[in-house]
Amino acid sequence: MLELDQLVMDFSGFRAVNGCSFNVGQGSITALIGPNGAGKTTLFNLIAGALKPTGGTIRFLGEDVTGASSDVLFHKGLVRTFQIPHEFHRLTVLENLMMVPPGQPGENLFSNWLSWGSVKRHEADVERKAWETLEFLELAHVAGQRAGELSGGQKKLLELGRTMMTDAKLVLLDEPAAGVNRTLLRKLEEKILILNRERGYTFILIEHDMEMIEKLCHPVVCMAEGRVLIQGDFQTVRSDARVLEAYLGE
Ligand code: ADP
């Protein structure tokens, strides 16, 4: 689904990503791990189109998308969520979901005047999808609450919900476990697994929570100094001496 070939990213002379290559298979949940400064966030920025690589190529669903903008990638089904959930905190939880689908006819003044009926129908479809998403995430009871009042874990669930309002195929999750209490963490894991197994989402996670990685992820890709150190199943990667050494040198 995603092919990274010899990616390089330089920041004014400093090489943050240094010849990084790996593939992500359709239907997988890939964990990206590695010590601080390994280049994980920069790699996410390259994959999601927030940065243009200095070198190398990125292919998504067989198409060369190297240097494509995040907007173009979003429309192709590659969606990134952020480490800090960026919900609109004054809007309700339901409104936060309803505003995600791009290019809604009600956004356009002329279509509002000329085809009011179809605008209303479209809005009703979006609202139905938002409610389905809230039911799935077990957030329906907070639908009318301002998103800013949610707990950290609920915000992560909402962030996942926002990706479900798009036609996402590949979802990049930035530290989904960070700041989430254990109960909501189990729920978040369960929802990610259902989205993967039953709804065909492919995920790449930057994550430090080893329990979550062990439960959800295969393969695990460990980066160090801007490139892939080792990739494989959780046990193989965790017990590799080079991985231990990379973390000790952090
Ligand atoms: P990780 O997410 O694995 O902790 P990052 O991708 O954030 O690693 O950073 C990799 C390296 O690139 C670090 O040494 C970091 O300081 C450097 N870096 C990241 N972004 C920039 C930037 N915009 N300008 C200069 N250096 C950067």
Structure notes:
With 250 residues, the chain is α/β, with parallel strands linked by helices. It has two domains: 2-87 and 168-248, P-loop containing nucleotide triphosphate hydrolases (Rossmann fold), CATH 3.40.50.300; 88-149, no CATH class. The protein contains ten helices and ten strands. The chain has helices at residues 40-47, 70-76, 93-98, 109-114, 116-137, 152-164, 182-197, 210-216, 234-238, 241-248; strands at 2-11, 14-24, 29-33, 55-60, 63-64, 78-80, 170-174, 202-206, 220-224, 227-232. A six-stranded mixed β-sheet has the order 6-7-8-3-9-10, with helices on both faces. It has a four-stranded antiparallel β-sheet with strand order 2-1-4-5, covered by helices on one side. A hairpin with a 2-residue loop joins β1 and β2 (14-24). α5 (116-137) packs across α6 (152-164) and α6 runs parallel beside α7. The two termini are 32 Å apart. The mean pLDDT is 89. The structure holds adenosine-5'-diphosphate (ADP). Residues 11, 14, 16, 34, 36-42 line the site of adenosine-5'-diphosphate. The site of adenosine-5'-diphosphate (ADP) has 11 residues, from β2 and α1. Residues 2-250 form the ABC transporter domain. Belongs to the ABC transporter superfamily. It comes from Roseibium litorale.
